Amino acid sequence: MWIRQLLLAVTGLGAGVTVAGGLFSFIIGLGVISDLADRTHTGNKILLYEDAVALGGIVGNLISVYALNQAGRLSGVIWLLAVYGSLAGVFVGCWAMALAEVLNAYPIFIRRIKLTSHLSWFILAIALGKTLGALLFFWKRW
Questions:
Q1: Which spans of this chain does the record mark as coiled coil (predicted)?
Q2: pLDDT tens digits for 88-111?
Q3: Rounded to a whole number, what is the largest CA-CA distance in the chain?
Q4: How far apart are CA 93 and CA 32, in angstroms?
Q5: In terms of DSSP H, where are the helices of 73-118?
Q6: Inter-residue contact 49 to 33 (CB < 8 Å)
């Protein structure tokens, strides 16, 4: 019985580490960290930014796993909500900035493959794919 629990724990921990590593690689690959350092002219603090992203992921997971935000456990430190909200806003703003730059890839791709005659079908296919993905996501949650 304990072997099964140990195997589940090791598998869960390994899967969590893999997913977290992939997410942080994606964030760095999008250029969110380096773009932030470039725009603020603080390239010498890039390691601090990367550590902050990793620490934010760890703390967010701890809050999520141990449900610290429920049952009034954080009621004594309500100021923490304002700090969290501010930092989450900065994070979402950086994501929006990075994704806006990634969207510049579509015009370059379209010009390279000379897709001028069926551009409307290409855009429609992207929109339908996104819609279908969202519908499947929310349908599976119910």
A1: none
A2: 777 777 777 667 666 677 777 777
A3: 63
A4: 10
A5: 79-102, 105-112
A6: yes
